[in-house]
Amino acid sequence: MKTKDDEYLRVKQAAAMLGLAPNTVRKWGALGKIPEFRHPLNAYRLYKRSDLEELIAQVERSRTQPTKRRPAKPK
Predict the structure, then answer these.
(1) For the chain, percent of residues with pLDDT exceeding 70
(2) Do residues 46 and 10 make contact, with C-beta atoms less than 8 angstroms apart?
(3) pTM of this prediction?
(4) Within 13 Å, how many C-alpha atoms sit on residue 28's CB side?
(5) Taking 80 as the threshold, does the pLDDT of residue 4 lie above it?
(6) CA 1 to chain centre
(7) What is the pLDDT of residues 8-30, one digit of tens each?
(8) Cα–Cα distance between 26 and 45 in angstroms, integer?
(9) How far apart are CA 61 and CA 39, in angstroms?
(10) For 39-55, what is the mean pLDDT?
């Protein structure tokens, strides 16, 4: 059974899940690249597990999609 605590991750946990440095997670949260929440009692940064899973899925989808090649510039 999932609890409320399992739904949200702290910075270190989110960083480990994404394979990033904790400072990168903080920066992405500040820039709005990852939705960031604050704990109401201690103001810790929190990230929803489902948001991070969706980000991972987006990255995986972008890796599997073929890229469009630009035509070569004439010399």
Answers:
(1) 87
(2) yes
(3) 0.76
(4) 18
(5) no
(6) 24
(7) 999 999 999 999 999 999 999 99
(8) 8
(9) 31
(10) 96
Burial class (CB in 10 A: 0-12, 13-18, 19+), 64: exposed
Into which CATH architecture does domain 4-63 fall? Orthogonal Bundle (1.10)
The residue type found at 11 is V
CA distance 37 to 43: 9
The one-letter amino acid code at 40 reads P
Task: Give the CA dihedral 47, 5, 57, 44, nearest 10 degrees.
Answer: 10
Domain map (residue ranges) of the chain: 4-63
Helix ranges, the chain (H): 4-7, 11-18, 22-31, 49-64
Q: Count Cα neighbours of 49 within 13 Å in the Cβ-side half-sphere.
A: 9
φ, ψ dihedrals at 36, nearest 5°: -120, 135
